[in-house]
């Protein structure tokens, strides 16, 4: 087996996306001591473990908030849902870690280096700082990730030599145990391994000895794997209220990336999803976003959200964002082409339709389809984009029909358009229909050519008072 350990050391801060990205100093605390801080606070001398009062003395403009264990746990679960695209065997390591059993996915995903690079890229895209490591045992991978080494160990025989130089701070033990190890001069894991096993268990507790045995593969470790819910629903609390739609995209991007990973793990897609904006002093806003075809492409989903928000006026500043995908649809991958098809039209018309609907509204964009009807003004109908059309009429029809037929002058029994005589090319095509709905017509249609070489669709009315009329223009 091969395990990847993901450690998120800044999770108490990065659980609130607006904090880690702010240029002013921010930190989270447990009420008395600083847990993590952003680069702006670090530049002013604030450090993790420092008393909150001392940090505020160093940086009077320091903004801080008490860390929220519930928000951190929810953030960790959403990362686990996203990580399911790499392996179904994802295990939570509270409060700030994940463990992925990756052995069965190596060939499919291009090897361990490609997987680690993809994980780092995805975590950065969601706004999380991550330390990755890989080892044949869970405990060894977690030790390497906590130490921030980024090492990859593929053989059990190399575990001991790899973890030996790590400091004892990488061990998951109590502060009292760390004080005991420091008192006896144990500064690295190698120092601890050289101590008598029974003495280690007696002084540092049995858990310390078992942790080292699990890391070396001498003791098995059972893990409980995370099971994602059947529907995707995620919420993100903003550290400060946001009044601009552009600023919301930074937080929404995290939710979209998590949704894309969740869908990829299930080989599924979505055709519509709901964006919920919670306001502090106004009713919540629900924005439904639809797609022409199902997808799990994060960039495509984010583009639709950006276009929709650009055309939306916020009722009030937003303090919480929610994303819900109630209907998860099966979505198989597309097969590639054996040979290059140079005749294929570039671009994706579905994405064009989706962006137009996001900007103009769903009802403003539609498709056209023909109907089994002889009367020209009733031979087409508005449909959903992409709906299959009925069979086209066998006779030529212009794409441009006038809303109301225009009378033509008749001179010497010949129709005239703009005082010029028209030459009849084809016809007549008699249309006599509609008696059943009191919109009947009796007309003889012709294709005519004007002196300027334009092609027109005209008809002669067979009912009194008769006459010639222009009904359409060919392109």
Offer a quick outline of the entry.
The chain has 16 helices and 21 strands.
Description:
The chain is of the alpha+beta class and 475 residues long. It has 3 domains: 3-163, MutS, DNA mismatch repair protein, domain I (3-Layer(aba) Sandwich); 233-330, Dna Ligase, domain 1 (2-Layer Sandwich), CATH 3.30.1490; 400-473, no CATH class. 31% of the residues lie in helices and 28% in strands. The protein is built from 16 helices and 21 strands. The protein has helices at 11-14, 17-20, 39-43, 52-58, 69-83, 106-109, 112-126, 138-147, 159-163, 175-183, 189-194, 197-204, 206-215, 245-265, 298-310, 349-360, and strands at 3-7, 26-29, 34-37, 63-66, 90-93, 97-101, 131-135, 232-242, 268-279, 285-295, 318-325, 329-330, 367-370, 380-383, 400-411, 414-417, 420-421, 423-433, 441-449, 455-461, 468-473. The strands form 5 sheets. The chain has a 7-stranded antiparallel beta sheet with strand order 17-16-15-21-20-19-18, with no helix packed on it. Strands 8, 9, 10, 11 and 12 form a 5-stranded antiparallel beta sheet that branches. Strands 5-6-1-7 form a 4-stranded antiparallel beta sheet, with helices on both faces. The longest helix is centred in the middle third of the chain and has 21 residues, at 245-265. The two termini are 67 Å apart. The mean pLDDT is 86.
Keywords:
475 residues, 3 domains, elongated, 21 strands, MutS, DNA mismatch repair protein, domain I, 16 helices, Dna Ligase, domain 1, 5-stranded antiparallel beta sheet, single chain, 7-stranded antiparallel beta sheet, alpha+beta
């Amino acid at each position: 087996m091969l395990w990847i350990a993901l450690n998120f050391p800044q999770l108490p801060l990065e659980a609130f996306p607006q904090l880690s990205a702010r240029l002013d100093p921010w930190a989270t605390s447990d009420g008395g001591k600083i847990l993590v801080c952003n680069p702006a606070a670090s530049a002013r001398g604030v450090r993790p473990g420092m008393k909150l009062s001392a940090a505020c003395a160093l940086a009077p403009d320091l903004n801080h908030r008490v860390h929220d264990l519930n928000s951190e746990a929810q953030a960790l679960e959403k990362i686990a849902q996203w990580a399911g695209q790499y392996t179904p065997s994802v295990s939570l390591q509270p409060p700030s870690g994940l463990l992925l059993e990756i052995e069965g996915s190596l060939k499919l995903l291009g090897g361990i280096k490609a997987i680690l690079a993809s994980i780092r890229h995805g975590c950065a895209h969601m706004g999380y700082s991550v330390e990755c490591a890989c080892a044949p045992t869970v405990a060894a991978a977690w030790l390497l990730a906590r130490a921030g080494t980024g090492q990859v160990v593929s053989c059990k025989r190399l575990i001991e030599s790899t973890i030996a130089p790590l400091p004892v701070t990488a061990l998951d033990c109590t502060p009292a145990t760390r004080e005991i190890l420091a008192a006896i001069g144990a500064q690295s894991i190698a120092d601890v391994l050289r101590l008598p096993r029974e003495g280690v268990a007696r002084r540092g507790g049995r858990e310390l000895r078992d942790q080292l045995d699990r890391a070396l593969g001498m003791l098995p470790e059972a893990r409980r794997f995370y099971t994602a819910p059947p529907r995707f629903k995620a919420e993100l609390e903003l550290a400060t209220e946001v009044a601009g739609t552009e600023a919301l995209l930074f937080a929404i991007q995290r939710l979209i990336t998590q949704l894309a990973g969740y869908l990829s793990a299930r080989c599924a897609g979505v055709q519509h999803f709901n964006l919920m904006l919670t306001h502090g002093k106004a009713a919540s806003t629900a924005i439904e976003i639809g797609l022409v075809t199902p997808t799990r492409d994060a960039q495509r989903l984010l583009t639709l959200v950006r276009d929709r928000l650009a055309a939306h006026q916020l009722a009030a500043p937003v303090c919480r964002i929610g994303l819900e995908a109630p209907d998860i649809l099966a979505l198989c991958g597309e097969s590639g082409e054996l040979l290059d098809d140079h005749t294929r039209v570039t671009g994706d018309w579905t994405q064009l339709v989706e962006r137009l609907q996001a900007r103009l509204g769903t009802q403003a964009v539609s498709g056209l389809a023909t109907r089994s009807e002889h009367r020209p003004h009733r031979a087409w109908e508005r449909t959903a984009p992409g709906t299959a059309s009925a069979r086209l009429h066998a006779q030529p029809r212009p794409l441009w029909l006038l809303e109301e037929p225009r009378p033509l002058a008749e001179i010497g029994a010949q129709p005239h358009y703009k005082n010029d005589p028209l030459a009849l090319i084809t016809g007549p095509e008699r249309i006599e229909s509609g008696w059943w709905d009191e919109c009947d017509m009796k007309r003889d249609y012709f294709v005519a050519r004007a002196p300027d070489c334009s092609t027109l669709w005209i008809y002669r009315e067979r009912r009194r008072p008769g006459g010639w009329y222009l009904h359409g223009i060919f392109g």
